[in-house]
Design goal:
alpha/beta, 2 domains, Aldehyde Dehydrogenase, Chain A, domain 2, binds nicotinamide-adenine-dinucleotide, 23 strands, Ald_DH_CS_GLU, six-stranded mixed sheet, Aldehyde Dehydrogenase, Chain A, domain 1
Length: 484
């Protein structure tokens, strides 16, 4: 059984909190024990991160930091199979996904932000002064300090490094609080950090849950200078309240109830291929996933039937078997939540085109399985159409006009992402402009250029990360005004 320890000042240490079990979602069996950090451990981690700002890390030039970040990427790749196995055992996700997305992109984040910091510029303004000699303004990019990084469980390494890499590139130090469901890759990364020579205290990890535990201890810690969080909107609100003390900045990547809009001129094969992934990839546990689909009436039946066929085409099983295409959801608790929505859909009179229950999975019966599910026939105000379920399910509703589709898609407190399927370029532009989201995809989904702004509007978040936008959050700009 693996024991997951906290990483504090370069050491792997047991925490003073209550240890808890780590489960393999595929079978439900206990595969590890997580050593939870108590308040004193979080204090020690934040203290180590603060001290490291004044040590060799704080004195490094940008090229020196960049060289180390590239070594971190290489270090992950050198231990690719270990990271892959750790991620699979934490999440139950199939190797086919984790080996193509989670681990390679987790490593790539360090190279992407190494490139970014090398090429980032700041603005300069030359100004006139009454004496005719003028003045020159330029902005200096300085690290914010100690950054708290609080992460979810759905793409553990990828989403954690998406924040850790730019934070370190900018010269900060970090204390990471991985999800209690997925402690493994954050801990393993501590070994890589030590091995490649990242100075002690720069990368710290504290384990535990949120309220009254490591998450809250960290985000309410007065010596943390900024908080970056990905997770549920409700948690984001709690973190924002914690950050208000001491006026600390937050970057919040939160929940969604993302719509897909399919117009009758769409390329149907490509649309169904894209929507199949948007609705069911990673067992629907992708913040950008589609749980509401609006389809123009003329092609409604064909899209609904096509998507139901995609839903029925998945193969459950051992995630280490390359033939497996869908894993379980993360936990028994999350499965209960997803299935409660399956019940509500049935009770509300939904037509179930595919799924709707729990699949038979030979040899893995105690795992947290749910069927990919497609419904039609519910009203826009049904809980299944309004709430983020975070499971492999979608509801499809017909529409007649572009205005109607936009009104339905925008009728949500969330505003993370949408996908628009049409071959009419002018319409694609119009709808992208009118849709209230941070990310609008046209004829694609989850196509990510990491230099672009990433984040949500409305209740889906505050701020943008990615490219220069990450650097804006992880640095403090200081204007220098020189009188000439
Ligand atoms: P969650 O909010 O339950 O937990 C996320 C993290 O916050 C965990 O590490 C948890 O321990 C911690 N936490 C919980 N309560 C806390 C508190 N009071 N103070 C400090 N920390 C606390 O989210 P989850 O269930 O792990 O992840 C799923 C959610 O994440 C979904 O809502 C999904 O949409 C969202 N998500 C958003 C994005 C995005 O980029 N917008 C990406 C992935 C996931």
């Amino acid at each position: 059984m693996t024991r997951f320890l906290n990483v504090i000042d370069g050491e792997f240490v047991a925490g003073s909190g209550d240890a808890f079990a780590n489960h393999f979602p595929t079978t439900g069996e206990v595969i590890g024990e997580v050593s939870a950090a108590g308040r004193a451990d979080v204090d020690a981690a934040v203290g180590a991160a603060r001290a490291a700002l004044k040590g060799p890390w704080g004195r490094m030039s940008v090229p020196e930091r960049v060289a180390l970040l590239r070594k971190v990427a290489d270090g992950i790749n050198a231990r690719f199979d270990e990271f892959l196995a750790a991620e699979i055992r934490d999440t139950g996700k199939p190797r086919s996904i984790a080996s193509h997305i989670d681990i390679p992109r987790g490593a790539a984040n360090f190279n992407v932000f190494a490139d970014q910091i090398l090429t980032a510029s700041t603005e300069t303004f030359e100004m006139a002064t009454p004496d005719g000699r003028g003045a020159l303004n330029y902005a200096l990019r300085t690290p914010r300090g100690v950054i708290a990084v609080v992460c979810p469980w759905n793409l553990p390494l990828l989403l954690m490094t998406w924040k850790v890499a730019p934070a370190l590139a900018c010269g900060n130090t970090v204390v990471v609080k991985p999800s209690e469901e997925t402690p493994a890759t954050a801990t393993l990364l501590g070994e890589v950090m030590n091995a490649v020579g990242i100075p002690r205290g720069v990368y710290n990890v504290v384990h535990g849950t949120g309220p009254g535990a490591a998450g809250e201890f960290l985000t309410s810690h007065p010596d943390v200078d900024g908080i970056t969080f990905t997770g549920e909107t409700r948690t984001g609100e709690a973190i924002m309240r914690a950050a208000a003390h001491g006026v600390r900045p937050v970057s919040l990547e939160l929940g969604g109830k993302n719509a897909g809009i399919v117009f009758d001129d769409a390329d149907l094969d490509a649309t169904l291929e894209g929507l199949g992934r948007a609705c069911f990839a990673n067992t629907g546990q992708v913040c950008l996933g589609t749980e509401r689909l609006y389809v123009q009436r003329g092609i409604f039946e064909r899209v609904a039937a096509g998507l139901a066929e995609k839903a029925r085409g998945y193969r459950f099983g051992d995630p280490f078997d390359d033939a497996t295409t869908m894993g379980p959801v993360i936990s028994a608790e999350h499965r209960a939540k997803v299935l409660s929505y399956y019940d509500r859909a049935r009770a509300a009179g939904a037509t179930i085109l595919a799924g709707g229950g729990v699949p038979e999975v030979g040899g893995h019966g105690a795992g947290y399985w749910v069927e990919p599910t497609v419904w039609t026939g519910l009203a826009q105000d049904a809980a299944v159409v309004r709430d983020e379920i975070f499971g492999p399910c979608t509801h499809i509703m017909p529409f007649d006009t572009e205005e109607e589709a936009l009104a339905l898609a925008n009728d949500t407190p969330y505003g993370l992402a949408t996908s628009i399927w049409t071959t009419d370029l002018a319409r694609a532009h119009r709808v992208s402009k009118a849709i209230e989201v941070g990310i609008a995809w046209v004829n694609c989904w989850f196509l990510r250029d990491l230099r672009t702004p990433f984040g949500g509007s409305k209740a889906s978040g505050i701020g943008r990360e990615g490219g220069i936008h990450s650097l804006e959050f992880y640095t403090e700009l200081r204007n220098v005004c020189i009188k000439l």
